[in-house]
Write a structure and sequence with these properties.
about 130 residues; mainly alpha; about 10% strand
Amino acid sequence: MKVSRNTADSDPMHRDCPGREIFQTITNRWTLLILWALKDNTRRFHELRDCVEGISERVLSQNLKTLCRSGLIDRHVEPTVPPKVSYSLTVTGRDLISVMEGITGWIARQLPNIEKAQARYDRRVGH
């Protein structure tokens, strides 16, 4: 897998690979769920919190900052009192949605096989 134009730095298995940070951001526990929640709508913080079940406000806030820094989402602040803050996907974030749609399609097709494998494994190890 090559993630950089510079072949010396293109292996994500190397700690100095420039693509490794975004790889870690994308594979974070919450990133794909947050992006999916923004797929069709601009949302405010509390809407995202309510949409992504199980995420705390602190973790959501940290993830939103990381996603803004990485250029996957935009943060919009309306100059009202109190300020209204909303989040939306950038062009780069929308491009990642198309990859996610491929992943969710794969999950839908393979879920029965995965569930059978999990059940076989659990029977073997006594879960």
